[in-house]
Amino acid sequence: MSPNARRKSPNKWWWLTAFTIGQAISIGALSSLYKLKSVVTAMGATALAATTVSLYTISQSNSKYDLSQWGATLSSWAMILLVYLLLGIGQEVGWLPNFLPYSDMMYSVFATFLFSLFLAYHTKLIVGGKHSKYRMSEKDYVFGACALYVDIVNIFLMLLQLMGEERKQ
């Protein structure tokens, strides 16, 4: 989405509403596949992880490790994660031979770690880092909230996949 479209007042609220409704339906449907104890455990672990990562990022004063310029690196890691997922799907469906030691657990662990880094990165963009070039504008508060929300939801879904016990049908 262009910076201009996400800053216009009526547009950003319509986009946020549509996004929130879509996320609520999909996350509710996915969570209903797991036992309540698993969902609550994943929620607690997500809350702890999000709080810890956010507090660390906000309180970080060491400019040697400024996270605000990690966008390209994190995007590259996300592409690697996507390729790994597609290889796993190809193996599961039977399109590819089982040459790669694909495992849902390995995928979930790496994705949880990656989305935790994305949470730190987006938090640093919001609060501002050493480089003013890598910073969200004050007009981007809806976009910033959506970025943090997506990161936290992805951490929750990966932890739910890791720790979750599925309901028996």
Automatic annotation (TrEMBL):
Bilayer-crossing regions: 12-33, 39-58, 70-87, 99-121, 141-163
Bilayer topology term: Multi-pass membrane protein
A Gene Ontology cellular-component term: Golgi apparatus
One Pfam assignment: Bax1-I
Subcellular location: Membrane
Coiled coil start-end: none
InterPro entries, alphabetized: Bax_inhibitor_1-related (IPR006214)
Assigned keywords, A-Z: Membrane, Transmembrane, Transmembrane helix
Major location category of this protein: membrane
Highest taxon in the source lineage: Eukaryota
Family according to the record: Belongs to the BI1 family.
Protein name as it appears in the record: Uncharacterized protein
